[in-house]
């Protein structure tokens, strides 16, 4: 598979005050996919503007024609499979079949506590994994079957109707974010793509070389999970969401820096690199002109 270049646009700008222009510019620059975060709020952006992912993607679908759109990532933290399926089918229809669902187990941030009763402890990592293991197969069914009933541990559905289904058949693709054994099994069984941000333990004090080694190990575990069910991992897209490895923003310092970074990760087997759209005065600050030069020239120089 050839390497693709995508971006993730955080939903912090009003649509008529830069939001629309960012999404249309992303398509003009030739990005394969423009994703957005699906959170109720996120880290340092908690006390500032933050808009919903599905409405934002719906608006983006109305002002773009070719670029794929998606979430990085949706999680069970505040989503229910039945209502999410209905929204995704509608979004896939509006976009003309250009939606990819990035999906993960969720973290312990604001999303994990916003809907909880006062005083209730957030889900543990094991509880999040348990919910994810039920969430993904049920969502798969809801997006591929006209009527679904399910009486599970965490989620229920009674004759949930999802006609006419997705434009993309049999359903829109899942990009499953996972690094642990249970998540990788879900990715192998249900994912058209796999997503990683690298090893979070290396972010503060690790080196780029250690990160590459950790990613190589994750890819090997993904391969083993696929092999266990008789699937060829070569047919799965491998997506690296940048900004969370020890390299941090270095790939956006110049076209040459990006080419070096992308080349090393292409050699590992990644098929898609995702760059954060620059946000001034944030962890994702970068020179906009350099970013756009990378978008236009980066893959060509990579060869």
Question: In summary, what is this structure?
Answer:
The protein is built from 8 helices and 10 strands.
Question: How many β-strand runs?
Answer: 10
Helix tally? 8
Oligomer description? single chain
General form:
globular
Task: Give the SSE order as H and E letters.
Answer: EHEHEHEHEEEHEHEHEH
- Report the major sheet: 8 strands, parallel, barrel
Integer-rounded radius of gyration: 19 Å
Q: β content, as a range?
A: 15-25%
Which percent bin holds the helix content? 25-40%
Q: Calculate the terminal CA-CA distance, rounded to whole Å.
A: 13 Å
Structural class: alpha/beta
What strand order characterises the main sheet? Answer: 1-2-3-4-7-8-9-10
> What is the residue-averaged pLDDT?
96
User: Uncertain regions: pLDDT < 50 for 5+ in a row?
Assistant: none
Summarize the structure in words.
The chain is an alpha/beta fold and 303 residues long. The chain has helices at residues 19-28, 53-63, 81-95, 125-144, 181-190, 208-228, 255-268, 288-302; strands spanning 4-8, 33-36, 68-74, 99-103, 147-151, 156-161, 174-177, 193-196, 237-241, 272-276. The strands form two sheets. It has an eight-stranded parallel barrel, surrounded by five helices. Helix 2 runs parallel beside helix 3 (81-95) and helix 7 (255-268) packs across helix 8 (288-302). It is globular, with a radius of gyration of 19 Å. The mean pLDDT is 96.
């Amino acid at each position: 598979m050839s390497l693709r270049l995508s971006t993730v646009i955080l939903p912090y700008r009003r649509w008529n005050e830069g939001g629309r222009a960012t999404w249309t510019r992303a398509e003009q620059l030739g990005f394969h996919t423009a994703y957005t975060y699906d959170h109720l709020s996120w880290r340092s952006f908690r006390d500032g503007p933050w808009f919903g992912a599905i409405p934002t993607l719906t608006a983006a679908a109305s002002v773009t024609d070719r670029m794929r759109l998606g979430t990085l990532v949706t999680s069970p933290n505040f989503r229910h499979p039945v209502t999410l399926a209905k929204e995704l089918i509608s979004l896939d229809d509006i976009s003309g079949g250009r939606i990819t669902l990035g999906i993960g187990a969720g973290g312990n941030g604001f999303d994990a506590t916003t809907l909880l009763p006062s005083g209730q402890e957030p889900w543990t990592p094991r509880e999040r994994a348990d919910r994810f293991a039920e969430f993904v197969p049920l969502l798969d069914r809801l997006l591929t079957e006209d009527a679904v009933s399910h009486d599970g541990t965490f989620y229920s559905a009674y004759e949930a109707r999802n006609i006419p289904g997705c434009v993309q058949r049999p359903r829109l693709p899942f990009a499953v974010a996972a690094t642990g054994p249970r998540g990788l099994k879900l990715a192998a069984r249900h994912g058209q793509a796999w997503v990683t941000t690298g090893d979070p333990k290396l972010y503060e004090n690790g080196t780029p070389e250690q990160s590459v080694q950790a990613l190589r190990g994750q890819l090997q575990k993904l391969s083993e999970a696929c092999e266990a069910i008789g699937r060829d991992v070569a047919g799965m897209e491998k997506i690296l969401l940048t900004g969370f490895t020890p390299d941090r923003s270095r790939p956006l310092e110049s076209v040459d820096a990006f080419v070096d970074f992308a080349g090393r990760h292409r050699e590992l087997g990644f098929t898609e690199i995702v760059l954060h759209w620059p946000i001034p005065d944030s962890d994702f600050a970068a020179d906009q002109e350099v970013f756009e030069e990378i978008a236009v020239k980066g893959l060509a120089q990579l060869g």
